[in-house]
Amino acid sequence: MAALTIASRGSRARRANSEATADGSAVLEKTQEFFQICDLEDKGFITRRDMQRLHKELPLSAEDLEDVFDTLDADGNGYLTLEEFSSGFSGFLFMFGNPAEAEARKTSSPEVLYESRWEESRGRDEEEEEKHFCMLMDSLGASNVFEEPTEVRSLWAQLRRDEPRLLSNFEEFLARVTLQIKEANQERREMESALKRKAATHDDEIQRLYEEMEQQIKNEKDRIMLQDSERFLSRSQDLEHKLSTKEHELDLLFQKQKRLEFQCRELSSERQETKVQNMKLKQTNEELSRDLEHTSQELALAQEQLALLQEQASRLDEEREMYQHAVTPSCCAQTRLSASLRPQEEEDDDEGVELQMSSIHPSLTSTPSAESRGTPTSPRGQPVGKETVHAEEGVASAPDRLFKVVLVGNSSVGKTSLLRRFCDGSFHPGTSATVGIDYRVKTLTVDGSQVALQLWDTAGQERYRSITKQFFRKADGVVIVYDVTTEQSFTAVRHWLASVQVEDLPIMLLGNKADLDKQRQVPGQVGEALAKDKQLMFHECSACSGHNVLDCMVRLARILKEQEDHQKEKTVQLVGSPCRKKACC
């Protein structure tokens, strides 16, 4: 009977154990699920704020969840790992997860009473473990060695429950660690004592060195003050000597200043007199300039009249030669004889021409007819800048017209390259800047007439502009050149236009370097608009490629020729007296 009772109790205990095992696994799974709900970030631990996420899963308020967190956080570090959460929260689930079932188990099964008794016995075991641990720590003398004995106690209790065979090794380890900690504390106290003694000795040494340094500083300060006083005394004496010297020099300078002021007053009076003389000389110069201009105009008119007379003399010479070839030898001899006698009352054609020419220019009476034929037929006479007419030039090479054209513009715009391209048909990229004035002559055929252009190349630098302005007075035309790749050279065009103070003077605005289109800074429309506003001729060309160089020069020559023809129509023509033919025999 007793055996049956024991067997029945054993079977019930086994069933209870199996049920407890099944419930424990379910509780463990539920605990892990709750931990995953709290640890959404996969940190491996949960905090007090993460615990509030179970508010929807459990019928607990926020304060209850905080109390549960404080209960589970036995070490007080502020967070719960999975192990801490599982070990403490599974018991919580048994009590609060299903309260009705827990109450039913407490009231309906004897196993529940057994578990409560077991928990009471477990509490007594914990108190006994605490007592044994305190006795162990006292025997080892480690009661006050560890700052946190709770962790050591937990480890000792766990080894006692799970691994009793390792408990003796752990106690020996605690004894050795305690001994080492005591030795380390003793050594630390000795080192602190030695350090205090060393600090006291060091303070004494520092105090001694400080006193010695104070004494040395005082001695050095006294020595420096003595040296400074001696140096100051010597310096004062030197300064007094220099001051006396400077005062003497100041007196000399004051006397010199008086002399200079006297000389300055004399120079001022002389300058005033010189200024008055300069004003008088300026007035005289202006009067002479007006006289010179008037004389120049009269001379120009005389030159034009002389050119007409030269042309008439040339035609008369040709007629005379034709007449001389037509007469007989006897008539020729008689003509030579009558020409050698030259009676005053005989008035033939040749003498009339010579008398008219000699009245204008005495040197023409001694000029041979061959030289007259070599003179250009243009009424402008010889080229500007030439002193004599070369007799060796033939009639075929003599131009019908000759015009003086001045090229102006800023430096490096390509004036010299334009002349070389127009006159020689070549381009030299390494051309240096023009110094002063240079000129070239080029003959063109314009409307059946031989027109010679005397092209004057001027320097574009500022220091040569006064020389350049003098050539505008006798110029027949002006070409203002600018660089299409440099806006500054185009801006200077207005300055060059202001320098040309001659009325009715043909002016051509010429934009050079038109082949450099990628580097262009001045559009063609801008140059054309300026030319239209100032009533100028406008062209763009390239001295490098030769584009439009000849065309613009031909156009300028045609304009000059037409202007001269218009002026010739207004010029008073001198008509010679009627000629009487002389009988040959």
From TrEMBL:
Gene that encodes it: CRACR2A
Keywords, alphabetical: Calcium, Coiled coil, GTP-binding, Lipoprotein, Metal-binding, Nucleotide-binding
One of the record's GO molecular function terms: calcium ion binding
Annotated Polar residues bias: 360-380
Domain EF-hand: 60-95
Organism listed in the record: Denticeps clupeoides (denticle herring)
Ranges in coiled-coil conformation: 167-230, 264-326
InterPro entries the UniProt entry points to: EF-hand-dom_pair, EF_Hand_1_Ca_BS, EF_hand_dom, P-loop_NTPase, Rab, Small_GTP-bd, Small_GTPase
A UniProt-annotated Pfam family: Ras
NCBIfam families (alphabetical): small_GTP
Cross-referenced SMART domains: ARF, EFh, RAB, RAN, RAS, RHO
UniProt-recorded name of the protein: EF-hand domain-containing protein
Positions of the UniProt region annotated as Disordered: 360-388
